[in-house]
Amino acid sequence: MSTRPALASSAPPADAPRPSRRSRHGDTREDREAAIVDAGLDLFLEKGFAATKVDEVARRAGVAKGTVYLYFPSKDDLFHAVVRRSVEPLIDVVEDLAHDPDAPASDVLTRVFKALYAEVVATDRREVLRLIIAEGGRFPKLAAYYHTAVVRRGGAALRSLVAEAVERGEFRDGPAAQRPEVIMGPALLALVWTLVFQEIDPLDLDEILAAHIDLVLNGVKASA
């Protein structure tokens, strides 16, 4: 059983009736799949990956247990679907932005940072990272999938963007250009902060975003 406490913002009282996802989704195949993925994410966050049972996912989604297995043969497969639906669309956007040949690299990085803060740091999508941090050590396959689907793809797009900017003379060829992962550091700080400390010491994400852009662009830009 997972020892991680349930999220106060998402877990209803123990005696409260569980909402049926079917009431919010239609009866098409796509609707049922979406209801199951929604229920899986809710329960993974509330109870942890190990403690979540397939029959609980079925009840939360308003479908039969066999229907869950029809779409997702294992809990691992359901987790993969959660990542695909919650985070991978943003990686698609990042890849598209990073491969814009006509835009200055500084403008592209600014758009990437703004998309990351608006679509992940400031939304419930950040909760997927909470799940990875909490369960990745116990379930390495989950961490490996997230790394392949999100971290590796996003990192490759970022490295390509920075390398091309160095080649064009926009960015200097310093340590940050060799390890461009470090330029995402402030965003990771903001993610962890909002997950752990936001109720204690709220972070102004607009200010952090502006500071992130200023820090990175002034750190990597080539001298005029």
From TrEMBL:
Residues 53-72 bind DNA. The keyword Transcription regulation applies. Residues 30-90 form the HTH tetR-type domain. Residues 1-13 have a biased composition (Low complexity). It comes from the Bacteria. Residues 1-31 are annotated as: Disordered. The keyword Glycoprotein does not apply. Pfam families: TetR_C_11, TetR_N. GO terms for molecular function: DNA-binding transcription factor activity; transcription cis-regulatory region binding. Keywords: DNA-binding, Transcription, Transcription regulation. InterPro entries: Homeodomain-like_sf (IPR009057), HTH-type_TetR-like_transc_reg (IPR050109), HTH_TetR (IPR001647), Tet_transcr_reg_TetR-rel_C_sf (IPR036271), TetR_C (IPR011075). This is Transcriptional regulator, TetR family. It comes from Caenispirillum salinarum AK4.
